[in-house]
Every structure is written in C-alpha cells, then in structure tokens.
Fold this sequence. Notes:
By secondary structure, chain A is α/β, with parallel strands linked by helices.
Amino acid sequence: MQSKKECVAMLLAGGQGSRLYALTTNIAKPAVAFGGKYRIIDFPLSNCVNSGIDTVGVLTQYQPLILNEYIGNGQPWDLDRTYGGVHILSPYQAKTNSSWYEGTANAIYQNLHFMKMYNPEYVLILSGDHIYKMDYAAMLKAHKETGADCTIAAIDVPLSEASRFGILNTNADGSIYQFEEKPKQPKSTLASMGIYIFSAQKLFKYLEADDANPNSSKDFGKDVLPAMLNAGEKMYSYRFEGYWKDVGTVASLWQANMDLLGENPEFDLGDKSWKIHSRNPLAPPEHIGENAVVKNSMLALGCEIDGTVENSILGSNVIVEKGAVVKDAVVLANSVIKAGAVVSYSIIDENVTVGKNAVIGVEKDPTAEIVVLGRDVTVADNVVVKEGQKHEKDILA
Amino acid sequence: MVISAIGVIFSNMHEENVPELVRRRTMASIPFGGRYRLVDFALSNMINSGITTVGIMTSNNYRSLIDHLGSGKDWDLARKDGGLIIMPPFSERNDKLYTTRLEALSGLRGFLNRRSEKYIVLMDSDGVMRLDIADIIKYHETKSADVTLVTTMRDVDKSTEYLVVKSSEEGRITDVELTPHVKEGEKVNVMTNVMVFNRQFMLNLIEDAITHGYSSFEKGVFVRQKNSLKLYEYKFDGYYAVIDSMSSYFKHNMELLQKEVRAELFGCRDIYTKVRDSAPSKYGKDAVVKNSLISDGCEIEGVVENSILFRGVKVAKGAVVRNSIVMQDNIIGQNTSLDCVITDKNVVISDRKSLSGCADLPYYIPKGSRL
C-alpha cells in the first residue's frame, strides 16, 4: 500500500495579476500565455515533474475557469496518477467559517488536510508567477543536508530592484539571520523567489499558530517566515543561478518573451534535458507563404503567415496577412492581423482581430510603452492605437 | 456523437508500393505532412466521426507504430470500454502469417464476437483524406446494405493492385473488376479500401469464406458474389491521396502547400497525432522561408522554399532546402543544398554538400544516414 509521498508541492495560483491589465480580465495570472504555446503554469508544473515530484496541489481562486480547464486531469504533465498527481484546490465551504483564501499562508492552511493525506516529510511551496527552469530535487537535497526546517530559494537581484523583493540576510553558510519584506534600504541583494521547502511538521505547526494569531496578515513573507525565524528555527537560503523572471507586469512579460529569441537566447525552450510540457494545440504545421518574411521569431503550430514577422512570438493559429507587419510583438493564439496592419511593441491576446491598415504601437522605438489588446478584441480598419494603451473592448473606427 | 461502429485499420497493407519507406516501419507509421504519420488520418477520421473502439491490425515491423500510438491517449482512445487496441497477428492453427484482409479478420473473430457494436468500418493506412464516416454509415443504413464500399475517381497507373467498381444509379454495385488494364492517365472509379459491414454479417461472411477456402474479400467475395450480396458504393469526391509510390508520396506531401488542400484536410476537424512537447519553431535572423510547412521544434537559420519540414529539423546558416521533404530531427549543415530530396528520420547532412533529385524521382536518403 502506498500511503506516503516524500514531498508534496503546493502551487499558489490564485493571483489576479492586476498589473497585466486586460490580459487577466478573465483568466488567472498562471494561465496567461507565454512563449507562443505555453502558459505560465507550465513552468512550475514541468519543473515539478522533471524534479520527480508527482503530487501537486494547485490553489486557485481568481477566475479559475480557463486555468482549471487547462490543467484538466494533468495528463500533459504526466500528472494523471492513481496515487498523487495534480489536484485543483479551490476555496470551499465548511461547517463553521467558510472563507476565501486570505493571503498565501491562509490558502495553504485551508488545505492542511490535503497535504496530510499524503503524509509528506516535506512540502514545497511554489507560485505561478515566474518563468524559470529549476531542479527542485537539488533544492530538497540541500534542505536535507543542512537539516533546515525551512529552505528559501534565492537569487541575486540588482541593488536598484532589491526593495521590490523579500530580502534574505544570510551568514556565510547560507543560514538566514534576517528576513526583510520589501525593505526600503536593503542590506543584501539576495531576493526570495517565493519558493520554499518546509519540513512538513514545522509547516503545519506554524500555519496553525498563524491562523490562531488575529494580528497576522496570513502571508508567508510577512508573517510565517518571520515567526519561524524569531522562534529560532533553522532557516537556510538555497542560491539559484539561472534564468528567473517575474512576469507580473506587461513590460516584464513582453521582455521575458523576447528573451526566448536569438541564437543564444537567455532562456532556451529547445533544451531537451529539461522539457517544458504543455497542453498542445491540435494544429497542422505552420505555413509560411510566398510573400512572407519571418526573421528572429518563434511561431507555434497552425500559423498562416504571408506578411512580415520579425523579433516576435506568435501563438498557435495566428494569421498574418499579406502586407501586414508584426515586429517586436507577442501575438497570442487564433489572432488575425489583416492586410497592411502594423503591430509593434505590443502584446495581442488570444482571438483578437486587427483590421486592415490599422497601426498598433510605435514602430522602431524600444522605449515605447507596450500596448495590450485583450482577449476577443476587434480593432476596426485604419484605427491607430498609440503606445501604452490597454484595451479590453472593441475599437471602432 | 457516438456511433455504434468498430473501426479496424490495416497497418501493413500495400507496403510493396513504397519499399524504401517501410524498410523499418509499417505503412501506417510513414511520416506525412510535417507532423503526422499516415495512420493519424484514418484514426482521426474515425474519432471525428464518433467511433471510440479502433483495432489496429499489424503483421510486421510494427514497433514504430506502437511507439507512435502508445496507449492511444493522444487520440482520446485510452478507454476502459474499447479505445485503441493493437492487434498483433493471431492464428489458432499456428500456421503462417496472414497475407490478406480476410485472413487477418478471421483472426479477429473472437474480438468481433465479444463487441456489441452494429457496424464495422475497415480502412487502410495508405490514404490521406477527410472522410465523414457517420455519413457513410447513414447511407449504409438507408440502403440496408450488407457491405458499402467507398469509391472515388482517380488514376491508377502506379498502383500494383486496385478494384474498379461499377454500379447502378441507386448505388448498387453491378460489377467489380480486379486490376483491369487502364490507359495511362485515365481516371477510373476505384474502391478506396474503406468499407462498412454489418458486424454480424461480416462474421458470417468470414465463416463462409473459410469453409469455401476463399482467402480474400476482393477475389473471393466481392468479385464472385456481387449479385447475391447487397453491395453498395458510396461515392467520395473530396481530396483523396494514395501513397502508392515514392513519387506519389512526394507529390501528395507537396500538395499540402496548397491552401485548399490544407483547408479540406485540417480546416474543419482536427487531425490528432502523437504529442512530443517540442518548443515552437524558431526562425533565425537570416532565415528566409517561403511557401513551406514548418513543424514544431524546428530551428531555421538558412533558406527553405517549397518544402516540408518535420518536427525538430535544424537548417544551418547558408543551407538551402528547396522542393524537399525533411523528416524528424534532421540536421542540414551549413551551406548544404537540397533540391527534390526526401530525407528520412534522424538524417545528418554535414556542411557544404549538394544533393538533388527531380519531382518524378525524388532522391531518398534512408533513416539515420550520416552524410
């Protein structure tokens, strides 16, 4: 009888991602598309599977429909298991107090019974906001070696950005002596990546204590981690060196997409040793037409291109008609760029139609603020959409 | 919608037509159209028509096919009831391998007896088309037919064997001719090897054929018993490609570069295939790609024109690929040029090579070659 999992992952996927504007009007942030055919959640899920973690709870709250449908039974990630696998954990009604997830720690606390079902020794806490490839098994190994109660994955960030993160102040052996959430004057540049491994019993104990504390904001960074540190629990940092991008803003999401391009891309999706799994569109190979120019770009299946595509990322089944130009842009699945239209420095969401000769964004201006056209938007012919505009309704002439 | 029919796909039929391509695989697992295997078209036609039980008949070299199909989950055919069932050769008398459809089906009687579906749909894997099987079954029902054969007009000068069908105005088949002489280029009404039977009727037919010593449907049943059986033809007039020679393989792949052909094959319903989780295809800053089909996982730095690239192909800088079919995971070296070439899977062509054939006789490079 299998009655135990060494490590259970809990993936916080309830975030609204309000700084992505129209891109998250109807979908949760982890379901936002990335790199043509992927969604953000493919990265932590693939990391889990590639690291040998086969039991993942996905905590959803905000606009879960598309995310739930995308995850389904977990088959694309080999997470359809008879014991373990991926489970959607939504807020639920209880005999006494029913509530939405309030803060990251509360979300995990409300699913204590889920974790306990697997009687794990360790719990891995993840968020669905980042693009990265990481071997959690190596982190777990470090956690065991240091004998830590909690290990926090951390990455060096530029000093100028350090005040946006939870900053870890550590001793030479990596043990943490201070944790500062978004400090005004950071003492170090070692930022928490929001990836934690807890020894399960410690986590359960501190979550219960946190829930009983009326003054707590029920957040890992603000409440649980400081409480553990104050109580003298062993906390270590685990240094991650590699590509890691928070895609919480339009500009960072656009940049992370661009990081996929080039001969030696900053982030390589073609790496066969660490495959990113995803739910694949059923589409034929893309057709590049007689009049097409496609350079320095990444295209998903089913595209029909007869115009110009440069420095861009296209989702599946995108149509770029003859004479249309897509440059420095991200165009998501099933969108149509009609003849003569020019799209630059933009993120065009799924199922958008850009009318003939419309001009979206500013060409050849890397300083231009990114334009966002939300899902299902139709832009009429000849319309001009200026830099930085965010639209979620049709734009008529 | 689910229809009460079992699908049976023959994976090895007609392999004699394309010996190079089936040297290490079945007809069904011949790569086609960038990211498909031939069996995907027959299977998808069945799934899209609501068939959820499909037997795949195999006789030899079927390892690549099993690798492709796996549990059937990519076709939504990993089911508790029915689903995808691979049928390796089976014989009660422990005699030689079957050679005909009828002999193959006689080994399937146990399975056919246990099922409860009303109809059986037989298909071969050498055809590429979009077929509405539900509509054929409806036709079969209205005619109260014993057997319905799907026919189409085509030229046959390269096929080794074919069945020419003549019928009355109502569609009742009046004559069946086995590989008659046909003038070059002339189109004739031939059977597509898609047939619909009543399950019980087929079981009786198999018993009857065994007792009379017939070994083939074509010779023993259709030609001989055309008058006593209720044989009907269902005329199919859509796009129909038969892979019956290397040049037809080349030609029909290239036809996918036509928008109308793609629209018919891929436009209205999905063609399912094995999922490989490749990254989207990547085009370098010097890439020049015109009128080509490019599959996922490709990385293109050179020139690609009028060609079909399968999954994971790398075309290095300065390489020129024209009028060619480049199969999965090929690497085309720097400044190498290909014209009218078919390279099978996992071929590596080093820098500064020049290879060419012509459309009637494309130059074929076998699987795994290193040049």
